[in-house]
Amino acid sequence: METIVALCKRRGFIFQSSEIYGGLNGFFDYGPLGVELKKNIRDCWWNDMVRRRDDVVGIETSIIMHPKVWQASGHVDGFTDPLVDCKASKQRYRADQLFFSPVVVDGTVVAYVSALESERTTAELQEAAEALKRKRGIQGKLEPVQPRDMTEAKAEEIALIPSPATGEPGSLTPPRAFNMMFETNVGALRDASSVAYLRPETAQGMFVDFKNVVDTGRVKLPFGIAQIGKSFRNEITPRNFIFRSREFEQMEMEYFIHEDADWSKCHQEWIEWCKQWLISVGLPESHLSLYAHPKEKLAFYSKGTVDIMFKYPFGVQELWGIAARGNYDLGQHATASGKPQEIFDEATKKKFVPHVIEPAVGVDRIFLAVLCAGYAEEEVTDEKGNAEKRVVLRLSPRVAPVKVAVLPLLKNKEALTQRAQALYRKLQRRYAVFYDESGAIGRRYRRQDEIGTPWCVTIDFDTVEKDGTFTLRERDSMQQRRISEAELFALSEETVY
Ligand code: ATP
Questions:
Q1: Which of 13, 55, 236, 374 has the largest CB neighbor count within 10 A?
Q2: Mutation test of ligand 1: which of 181, 206, 250, 361 has the most ligand atoms closer than 8 Å to its C-beta?
Q3: Splitting the chain (497 residues) into consecutive groups of 10 residues, what average pLDDT does each group show?
Q4: What is the DSSP string of 25-59?
C-alpha cells in the first residue's frame, strides 16, 4: 500500500485534502491523472449500466434531501456503527474492528489481550498472549486465543480488555451507537427544525423519485434507475487510503421488479453482471470473490446480500454490494409521505409496490482496486543493455488516464514535431492523449509506463519520409511494431469503449 500511496502522490493521482494545513483525515483530492482515471471509471459504468441498456435510466438527485427521507429510510435511527472510546488516550474505535481474547493458562483466564482488525488479527492476539505470559512469568499451558470483537464483549469483560492505544485495561467504554450521517443546517436559522443531512448513500434519491421517473420516463418493469454521486459518512476510523473515507462517490442502481418475479434469479444475474463489469475494467478474476451475508445478520426486510470482494494489499474487502431489498424502501416512503408508490399491473389489474435489487459500488474503491491490481515492478534491460527497474501500471485501456502518448523521436527536427503535433491534435478530439518531446525515448516510455498509458507512438524519419507509419510501443509487452494512423484509430476504437 505504501508504494501505491507514494506513486499516487508522485504522479498526481491522489493528494491528501487540505495538505498544507496538515490534512483532514478521511478526505482526499484527485490530481490531474486521478481525475481522468476516476472519470473513466464513471463513464464506463454509466455507458454500460445506463446508455447501453434498454432497461435502465439515469438520474441525478440532490445531496441534501428533506430530513424526512432519512427518517423514513431508517438512517436517522439506525445508520450507526458501534463506537468504543478509550478514555485515557481519547482514541475512538469501531467496536467491530477491535478484537480481544482472554489469555487462558491451564484453563484459567489470567488476562485479556486486544488487537485491531487486520489480516493478522489472530496471530497478533496470539503473540500478545505469549508475550504477556512470558512477561508475567506465568507457568502452564497457554491455550490458543479465541478472538471476538468488542460488540461481543460481556459487560464484566470490558474493564479487563486493554486499550490498543495504551496497552492497559480499564479505559475502554462499552460500545455505543454512533450515527454516521453528517449534519448541517438549511436556511438562516440554526435550530432543530433546520437540521438536514449530507446523504450517506445515493440510493434514497432513486426511491424518492421513483414515481417521477415512472410517470415521465416511459419505463416498464423490470427497469432500473441509476445514479452516480458523492456520499458522506462520518466514519469512526477512516483507513486504508481511499478505501474507507468520509467523502466518497457511489454508483448505485435500483432495479425494480414485479412482486411475483423470481428475485433470486434476478439477484444472481446482477451479481454476474457486476463481476463481468469489474473484469472489463481490468480487475483480474483471480482477485475477485463472493461473500454471501449470513441470513441471521441481514436486516429483517432483506432477502439476501452478496458482496463482490477484492483482494486488496490490506486484505480481502468489500468492493460491491448487491442487495435484494424487497419492497421495504418504497413501502417506507409511501407510509411516511402518504403518497402511494405503486405500479399498476395490466395483467392482474392490481396495484403493487415493486421489489428491488440494488447493486451499490464505490468509485474510489474501484479506483484503488484498479491501481493495486495494475501495479508491477519489473527488471528490464535498457537500450544500453543495463538492467533497470521498470514501474508499470497495467491499466485497462478503458480506464487508463492517458490512452496514447505521442512522441517525436527528436525535439529539434521540425518535420518530426509537426507530424507528431498533427497526430496529437487529431487523437485529442477523441481521447485523453499526451505529447512529450523531452528526454531520451526510453525515459519517455518509462514515464508513460508508470502512469499506465497503454500505447506510445514514436514519429521518426520513416514516418515523414516514407509511408507515414510510426512505431507503436505497447506498455505491457514493451514490443514495438509499425502501424498506420488508421490502424491506431481502429485499435483504440476496439479497446477504449
Ligand atoms: P462497509 O461495510 O465497507 O462500511 P457498507 O456495506 O456500509 O460498506 P454500502 O452501504 O453497501 O457499504 O455502500 C455501497 C458501496 O459504497 C460499498 O460497497 C463501497 O464500495 C462504497 N463505500 C461505502 N462506504 C464507503 C467509504 N466510507 N469509503 C469509500 N467507499 C465506501
A1: 13
A2: 250
A3: 94 97 97 98 98 97 98 96 96 96 96 93 96 95 97 96 96 96 94 94 98 92 97 94 97 97 98 98 98 93 96 96 97 98 91 98 98 96 85 98 97 94 97 95 95 97 92 96 96 95
A4: TT-EEE-HHHHHHHHHHHHHHHIIIIIT-SSEEE-
- Nearest-CA neighbor of 313 among 367, 362, 369? 369
Write down the pLDDT at residue 432. Answer: 97
Q: Is 237 left (phi over 0), alpha (psi -120 to 50) or beta?
A: beta
Protein residue with least CA distance to atom 15, ligand 1: 361
As given in the structure block, the three cell numbers for residue 82 are: 458501534
Mutate to test the pocket of ligand 1, among 235, 365, 367, 368 (most ligand atoms within 8 A of CB): 365
Q: Strand, helix or coil at 11?
A: coil
Q: Please state the pTM of the whole predicted model.
A: 0.93
Alpha carbons 268 and 290: distance in angstroms, whole number: 11
